[in-house]
Amino acid sequence: MTIVPPAPGEPRRPFGPLDSGDAWVVSPTGERYWGRFGAAGLLAYDPDRGVLLQHRVAWSHHGGTWALPGGAKHADESAREGAIREAQEEAGVPDGAVRARFESVMDLGIWSYTTVVADVVLPFEPVISDPESLALEWVPVDEVDARPLHPGFASAWPELRALLTVRPVVVVDAANVVGSVPDGWWKDRAGATARLRDRLDVWAQRGVEASRVALDSTRWHPRVVLVTEGAARDVADPEDRDDVACAVEIVRAPAAGDDSIVAVAAEHVAAGDRVFVVTSDRGLTERVEALSGDGDPAEVRPVRWLLDQLDQVPAAEPSVPTAGS
To answer: If one looks up domain 168-310 in CATH, what number appears?
Structure first.
């Protein structure tokens, strides 16, 4: 593998490299791939309008084809961060307009490309904001194949399209999870729940390995519903991050938390979502597993399943105070 910087005057970077990642990776057999640290693209999905595609300018790699806004990742940048940054630079995607749902990685060993599929949560109109686009359009899902697609995107599209209907939701029994860690939570239930909320947000944003939720592709960013009860109901809603809408929703149980957890799980099962309920409560487990709907039944994951993953997540700064403070 060889790293080759852009040539002087190269149209892709007419003013020279903008970041250390702006370089070609050249394989031993001569193939060139853009992005020293790999590349990432954003597939923004709006169920009412379709997917956002970029008509690539003639001088670009496979110019004249349609593909996703994207480009070279920066050093120490996650694929999600890189894809959203590139989409903001190339298509004017506003802060907080999309929520990442899953990532699909093509790994060639010397170089990788990650497609980040994200749901549009704040409708927007794309804006051509750099010289790499001839056009930006929302294309209905059924019409994507009719466009002359970039070969890489054309190869990935069938799998990506099939997964657009898969929506994982993790419903968390806050009392059960908080109560399983002897960290003094009983002194401040709302505060302990707020810490759990923030760690769940970071966990969902970083993504979950597909194998942990028995789904295809590489990594998933599930929606998280945190069900609180009693004194923990005072926990405040999380704030959206600058680049992507927050992944955690707070549901405050008006009475028994178990009843609200079952109701939330049933609602998502009926909507066709892939539902995972995190609890180690046996009675609640039986109630959840008895749910049925048009899609897959809800599955239960023990608290340890979640805690083992949260242990790998750095502690987050509290995003907001508790509602009662």
So the answer is: 3.40.50
